Automatic annotation (TrEMBL):
<dbReference type="InterPro" id="IPR002401">
    <property type="entry name" value="Cyt_P450_E_grp-I"/>
</dbReference>
<dbReference type="GO" id="GO:0005506">
    <property type="term" value="F:iron ion binding"/>
</dbReference>
<keyword id="KW-0175">Coiled coil</keyword>
<dbReference type="InterPro" id="IPR036396">
    <property type="entry name" value="Cyt_P450_sf"/>
</dbReference>
<protein>
    <submittedName>
        <fullName>Cytochrome P450 20A1</fullName>
    </submittedName>
</protein>
<dbReference type="GO" id="GO:0016705">
    <property type="term" value="F:oxidoreductase activity, acting on paired donors, with incorporation or reduction of molecular oxygen"/>
</dbReference>
<dbReference type="InterPro" id="IPR052666">
    <property type="entry name" value="CYP450_20A1-like"/>
</dbReference>
<feature type="coiled-coil region">
    <location>
        <begin position="214"/>
        <end position="241"/>
    </location>
</feature>
<dbReference type="InterPro" id="IPR001128">
    <property type="entry name" value="Cyt_P450"/>
</dbReference>
<comment type="similarity">
    <text>Belongs to the cytochrome P450 family.</text>
</comment>
<keyword id="KW-0408">Iron</keyword>
<keyword id="KW-0349">Heme</keyword>
<feature type="binding site" description="axial binding residue">
    <location>
        <position position="409"/>
    </location>
    <ligand>
        <name>heme</name>
    </ligand>
</feature>
<keyword id="KW-0479">Metal-binding</keyword>
<dbReference type="GO" id="GO:0020037">
    <property type="term" value="F:heme binding"/>
</dbReference>
<dbReference type="GO" id="GO:0004497">
    <property type="term" value="F:monooxygenase activity"/>
</dbReference>
<dbReference type="GO" id="GO:0016020">
    <property type="term" value="C:membrane"/>
</dbReference>
Amino acid sequence: MLDFAIFAVTFLLALVGAVLYLYPASRQASGIPGITPTEEKDGNLPDIVNSGSLHEFLVNLHEKYGPVVSFWFGRRLVVSLGTVDVLKQHINPNKTSDPFETMLKSLLRYQSGGGIVSENHTRKKLYENGVTNTLQSNFALLLKLSEELLDKWLSYPESQHIPLCQHMLGFAMKSVTQMVMGNAFEDDQEVIRFQKNHGTVWSEIGKGFLDGSLDKSTTRKRQYEDALMELESTLKKIIKERKGRNFSQHIFIDSLVQGNLNDQQILEDSMIFSLASCIITAKLCTWAICFLTTSEEVQKNLYQEIDQVFGKGPVTPEKIDQLRYCRQVLCETVRTAKLTPVSARLQDIEGKVDKFIIPRETLVLYALGVVLQDPSTWPSPYKFDPDRFDDESIMKTFSLLGFSGTQECPELRFAYMVTTVLLSVLVRRLHLLSVAGQVIETKYELVTSSKEEAWITVSKRY
């Protein structure tokens, strides 16, 4: 996973609440610029809610007070870092513990996690190898699912409006379930059941740390617990079936089963990967296609690269890594969409950023959405321009932020490959077109999405 946790309103605030719940509060004062509490009990929570999301609140805060700012969550001081320069001073590239995993597990009421450094390194390596083996073993499956979607779109008249978010979520669910959990999910009814339970769990994760709303609603709590129990039951069954046996298809769970993990760790890790991969993959696919429909020149360049690499031949794993411009398109998609707008880390020892002392046990937010559109780092930050990633220094910055290279999370790495294959299949056969007059508004949550359905049309290249 990303070396930084990822959040936004409802989910974001709840996850911040989870950190504060897990660790004792620091009551030390700070000379860091920022705002005083609006309310004694809730701190600046009303300001965050009024801003629409934590990301939008941080944008305003950094614009007013600079790269290092502070605010109050309840009675707890929170520090936010909003430029690459100050993040460089705080990020430890040797960190292997995963805040996102820790937060998500706490919200799911899971207990395992943390561990000593050597164990964290081992589990990180296990995850990396798991993703590599899963993608290699299931490339043909991924290609098949992409071609099925292509055939569906080819069957539509050119005037047909296609609900992009809906189709990408369905595609991601099919891809993730079969590649993570196996061929039982070749059955569409199994995928639909998983998607329903996934949606219930994902929408409720974190609620209650702030307002206790889940615990106050017996119906919602029962629905959430039933959905989580059904997901866990499915995973337990698959884990039991895969233990001590050999299968022709290697799935992600196999890597966990073959690692030195106990049953509870396997269950939790497979749950986290399944939940997160579905959403990250769906949103990356959605935003990439959205930007291509509004960037004719970028789509033309991508088509030319795909044609040059594959010609009239099939999409193959041997050639997929040659799609350098496609990777730039995906990096620019993550940046422009601010796919994961905020991350967090607990200050485990007293530290210093710029001229400011950050006390031990302070929650430090990485305002990635602010950083990703900082004009001092990204010229013309609101322009969708994949060519900016030709610059090696830009790629190093992107890697530092956890979106590429050694700090890239397994779920994002998985999503990059799935989206690359999908775009290779779609763009070589179709022009992807926007719907005239459509304005796509952004909703900043755990992973950034559009507020409403995004519609596109397609036309055949040949």
